[in-house]
Amino acid sequence: DVKVTQSSRYLVKRTGEKVFLECVQDMDHENMFWYRQDPGLGLRLIYFSYDVKMKEKGDIPEGYSVSREKKERFSLILESASTNQTSMYLCASSFQGINNEQFFGPGTRLTVL
Amino acid sequence: ILNVEQSPQSLHVQEGDSTNFTCSFPSSNFYALHWYRWETAKSPEALFVMTLNGDEKKKGRISATLNTKEGYSYLYIKGSQPEDSATYLCASTNFGNEKLTFGTGTRLTIIP
């Protein structure tokens, strides 16, 4: 059974704080992704990684950075959280190849006050 | 950025009825079309990944078709059950691109 886990289901932070969202997958997937989901908008890609220490910007990378030091772990970092980063954050992973399905984590609902 | 559109935005269907909804995507340079089901309080789960024009895939009571020339896919649910209540997402990708672009989803509610 593929498992993608995220460090928190709910998180409340203050404006200006540095926030770390962690994602771990146990299926040896090469690709890992971070998305955010907002009402009325589709899942929007923030960053993705296709290998350890490799990263590529998605559609909305501003205000975020990522880290992938190990194959199974992909971290999303909000350097200085702002209220417009209040959202649901979803991590996903897949084998390499764009016809491979993505496996999603349960999501982290982040509120920035 | 690809523009992937889904319709309708939401749908209420009586239990036992069949239903379908649409995903449209740019057909130029198309490579793959994904369908995901996202139930409340759960993670999105893949239903189908389709690449070939005219392809039809089936999983139980759910099936999907793909027209890559005109840029659309239909998802069909036969004999809807309460457990089919979910948001159905489609996503498209182009050649040479590992990124999926998602539509906004169709929120399906089955009325018992």
E-strand count of chain A = 11
**Residue fraction in strands of chain B:** over 45%
Largest interface: A-B, 26 and 25 residues
The count of DSSP E runs of length 2 or more, i.e. the number of strands of chain B, is 11
* Structural Rg of chain A: 13 Å
Break the fold down into its secondary structure elements and pairings.
The complex is a heterodimer of chains A (113) and B (112).
Chain A: E1 4-6, E2 10-13, E3 19-25, E4 31-37, E5 44-49, E6 56-57, E7 64-70, E8 73-78, E9 87-94, E10 103-104, E11 108-112
Parallel strand pairs in A: 2-11
Antiparallel strand pairs in A: 1-3, 3-8, 4-5, 4-9, 5-6, 7-8, 9-10, 9-11
Chain B: E1 5-7, E2 10-14, E3 19-24, E4 30-38, E5 45-50, E6 56-59, E7 62-67, E8 72-77, E9 86-94, E10 101-102, E11 106-111
Parallel strand pairs in B: 2-11
Antiparallel strand pairs in B: 1-3, 3-8, 4-5, 4-9, 6-7, 7-8, 9-10, 9-11
